[in-house]
Amino acid sequence: DLQICQHRAPTCCTKKMEESYQAAVRRERTQSIQALNFELKYMIVGHITAFQEAFESLLRFAENRTSSLFETAYRPVAKEAAEPVKELFTDISLYILGSATTVESAVFRFFDSLFPLVYSRLINPGITELSEDYTECLRLTRQDINPFGHYSKNMVTELSKALWASRMLSQALSLGIEVINTTEHAALTKECSRALVKMQYCPHCQGLTLIRPCVGYCLNVMRGCLASVSELDAQWREYISTLEYLTNEMAASHDLEVALMAIRNSINEAILHAQLNGPQLSATVDKVCGQPKHREGNLSSDYIVPVKEAAEPQTFIMAHTSLTKKRREFITYMKRSRTFYASVAERLCDGDLVMRDSSTCWNGEDVV
């Protein structure tokens, strides 16, 4: 009653054993592909973690650098500006990790929150009381009256270019893991499991427990079983090319590190622009939002403090070097895996499964 291991000679196998063999080849096929995938998956997961750690390190440094701008140059707004600065860098981090937020909305939200502070503490420090309604009016009119000139839009442009490549790379790495996980659990067809039993276990039914499949036979069976997996070859090669493109983009004109470091300077230029245009801004705001309560005299000139560029300490240089090194290592490894899905059958037939150094092997029907 055997369905797979039919043979002219007497056999020690039963139909129930054949069913056990089919369960075994399914399990073994999954385990062997998992073993092949392990190194590749380990490298991608490792680099996802390394990239994220390097991103976070750069973001923390850029955030501290931006906060220090307010503490050293714009003391009157430093305390209240801390929260908008924190929100800006949180939004940037979420954007890189793939959330639905945009760079434009993050930057404009920051400047919307900053304008009431700059207007009431730096441009008109004589304002004694800022009501919620008046603060909201300043926030809402920020984009219309454009107090920060072209600096806010320039910041959006520069950050968008730099962060786009980082965001795409982050999403691409996650996609790579998803693809690998999917191939590990691809279902075996009935024909494939029968062919694997015939190749690996039917010799046992003749008492030939030490004989192994011939190399050419193994390749034919594995290529048939893994046809759906090897179809990924063209897309995987394209995927590796895309990763290469993204890492080059990050290292070239869309340099993440440079863009993050430039945030401090962009904000400083924006605030200076608003202060220098203080009288015109005040006149426009008075028309739109009305006049708030003032103390006597105008103190705005006392609050224009030229800001010195903070020196780049060792921590930033280390984070920058770490990210550059990680990118280079990662893409070198991934380029080596370009043929991964084209060569799965060859790699599965390359280990202990086949008999390479013997004059005899199993061809599916007999020992040859």
TrEMBL record:
Q: Which residues form the signal peptide?
A: none
User: Principal localization?
Assistant: membrane
Among its keywords, does the record have Amino-acid biosynthesis? no
The UniProt keywords, alphabetically, are: Cell membrane, Glycoprotein, GPI-anchor, Heparan sulfate, Lipoprotein, Membrane, Proteoglycan, Signal
- One short Pfam name that applies is Glypican
* Keyword match DNA-binding: no
Spell out the subcellular localization from the entry.
Cell membrane
Q: Which GO terms describe its cellular component?
A: cell surface; extracellular region; plasma membrane; side of membrane
Q: Which InterPro entries match?
A: Glypican, Glypican_CS
Annotated PROSITE patterns? GLYPICAN (PS01207)
Q: Name one GO biological process term.
A: cell migration
Entry membrane topology: Lipid-anchor; GPI-anchor
Q: Please describe what this protein does.
A: Cell surface proteoglycan.
Which PANTHER family is this protein grouped with?
GLYPICAN, GLYPICAN-5
Family as reported in the entry's similarity comment: Belongs to the glypican family.
Q: What is this protein called?
A: GPC5 protein
Q: Lineage in the entry?
A: Eukaryota, Metazoa, Chordata, Craniata, Vertebrata
| Name of the gene | Gpc5
